[in-house]
DNA sequence: TGGGATTTGTTCGTATGTATG
DNA sequence: ACATACATACGAACAAATCCC
């Protein structure tokens, strides 16, 4: 039999949520940048329930990503910053402004003008027998790979974690700088074209969302709420001969990132200012079944 | 000052997680399809903590999406089904097998052969003054829109919720079937081309991940855990004149959906079997800075 | 700088309700 | 009807972090 009345904590939680959305919480404290909820003791009296029941409600609100509690300070309405918009299709392959050269984030991830990307030192590792990597790069499982890992910041704030993989052969066949923990200023793609003669003619992206691991939580300052998930994009790039060319895995904090893709003919301002909105007039035609 | 020792519930939770991952839980019950954890009372004795502390640990594991509890039954390890892979770039615009005609899911969302999509009746509404819709379609805020909403099933299982929007003008200008709560078998894009003369030449997608609302939770059978989030894809399609053409918002359950995009030249088996893996050999070149 | 007040975090105990088998 | 198992709810004590005078 289904429950007829909701539990008390649920009533408390939903009332708090309404009050948060209406903005009429913390009446004496409406000035602060970060809106604060009344302390648990006050809520206890206000709703006529025990502190534990109040905490059940707050716990649910935390999981929903609506509030966050800090020991000794109080419980606060979560402030979600404006999202960063990243175009993953436009800059690559010379399909859009920015061309296809330079650092990976100029190739793979187009960001609106005026933003600054800073890059951590490269961490280089040699790995063997990763089933996942082998699968994407279509190699034997015993193949050894070079992984190059970096942390990316946008305007000084944590933005993405990124790792690229390629077979160890690349380094011995002429692209030795892949093994050095230094940036490749002209971009690894350009470098590999120059040294090994490979041209990137297409790519395939796979996107998932998942719970972050500890390292990702730390870098992006994420908690345990359902809002604190990450995107994982897996880009497989192909050479002219149709062979898997490179594998780049990027982690993005989903609460403040929007991913964009363009295909076909798209107005310029949509390409260059994703999420910004170019004002223009309308005209008809529709879709959907 | 940072805490030196973790709380007891955290120890319990992490130990349970280890035991879950190693598979050595529920020793007398290893046969069942769904692995069951020992009851709370047993854990209480095993770890020497109170039942409330055990429940703190289980609660955290639930939020992480690792377990789920059912009243009267027990606590079970969550079984994540194999993901469905959907290609959002290939089928549209005739860029890939499947062409560009027919129902939306043949145009917009390419799925591997052998899967069957079934569609709910269309729910048609007329809406006014949606700031969001106006923004994407670049219209005035007072413009009225037709919305056409459908539930999609893949092989009989809930797969996606989808809503398309276009100005009410479309219906009065000749595309009257948009207002009828019936499928448009040849596809709305083809229908609008025929009636209003618009051709779709490109599109822009924006992808986000967020906590589901009640309706989405219900349709996809999602809970409150951090694994139970949804993708929301917003597709804006453009006509030859570069005007916003249609707006299609699709909701996907992120725990069992992978989104795919292709660009440029990509091997055929990657196009037609995303997530399936065509076995082939390797060859070098790399990327990343 | 100190010390007390405030506020949330952790942990326990207990009782009762509800769903399952 | 009974036993099992999770859910809800209350009360209480102390710890830990912060705030404020």
From TrEMBL, chains A, B:
InterPro entries per record: Bact_HTH_transcr_reg (IPR050679), Chorismate_lyase_/UTRA_dom_sf (IPR028978), Tscrpt_reg_HTH_GntR (IPR000524), UTRA (IPR011663), WH-like_DNA-bd_sf (IPR036388), WH_DNA-bd_sf (IPR036390)
SMART domains in alphabetical order: HTH_GNTR (SM00345), UTRA (SM00866)
CDD domains attached to this UniProt entry: WHTH_GntR
Record key words, sorted: DNA-binding, Transcription, Transcription regulation
Domain of life: Bacteria
UniProt entry tagged with the keyword DNA-binding: yes
Chain segments carrying region Disordered: 267-289
GO MF, one example: DNA binding
Domain HTH gntR-type: 6-80
Pfam families: GntR (PF00392), UTRA (PF07702)
Name this polypeptide is given: DNA-binding GntR family transcriptional regulator
Source organism (scientific name): Actinomadura algeriensis
